[in-house]
Amino acid sequence: MRERTIVITGVSSGLGKALFDELHNAGERLVCISRRFLEEQKAGAGENVSLLACDLSKSGEVERTIEKLRELVRTEEVIFIDNAAIIQPIGSVGALQSGQVNAAAETNFISPIRITNALAALIGIRTLTVIHVSTGAARHPIVGWPLYCATKAGLKMFYAVVAAQEKSSGRIRVHEFDPGIMDTPMQAVIREASPNEFPRSEEFKNYKKDHELSDPHTVAKRLIREYIQV
Questions:
Q1: 24-55: per-residue pLDDT in tens?
Q2: pLDDT band at 229 (very low <50, low <70, confident <90, very high)
Q3: Where are the domains of the chain?
Q4: Superfamily of domain 4-88+98-180+216-228
Q5: What is the 3-state secondary structure (H, E, C) of the chain?
Q6: Which pTM does this prediction carry?
């Protein structure tokens, strides 16, 4: 197996958990950044799996985590899967709470930029591959999701700039991966929103009722097949 480190954010549920399961089973060296970890993930921690507990909405925790990340990443090849994101706050502009705005901006936008910047600065890294888990909400305005749309669109542009910056060197490669609509806790949060908060709430309830949500493990396998190839 190639000597490389895979850094993943948000591994306790959804696509992140599925990626953890698939990559851990394949014996990959993982550094996982997440607000919480499942008991089976804690049990699997060891030489090839490092778990860094971090609330990405809190700047101080992110800074401490980045310091640990610098110590843990010792391979010349690194893959960063920018997966963690929150959909909240769901609602209209004018009714948003400042704390929710800050949490969304830190989690979805600022923290992944800081982590990417820290990894790019490591002089021992020969190649850094960033896999940015994107969304259609980064390209299309969705009423009720002002912060999710804005932060994901901003991050999409940030990674476009990184790709342009490194086009000639090839040291940093950026891939954008849109997983589509999956059966995850984020979808459960969306379904709980009222029509006043999210006018398309009934449509998303029907995705679940009509079995139109993709299984996260199926999506994880597709991401790995396309960009990681374990």
A1: 999 999 999 999 999 999 998 888 999 999 99
A2: confident
A3: 4-88+98-180+216-228
A4: NAD(P)-binding Rossmann-like Domain (3.40.50.720)
A5: CCCEEEEEECCCCHHHHHHHHHHHHCCCEEEEEECCCCHHHHHHCCCCEEEEECCCCCHHHHHHHHHHHHHHCCCCEEEEEECCCCCCCCCCCCCCCHHHHHHHHHHHHHHHHHHHHHHHHCCCCCEEEEEEECCHHHCCCCCCCHHHHHHHHHHHHHHHHHHHHCCCCCCEEEEEECCCCECCHHHHHHHHCCCCCCCCHHHHHHHHHCCCCECHHHHHHHHHHHHHCC
A6: 0.96
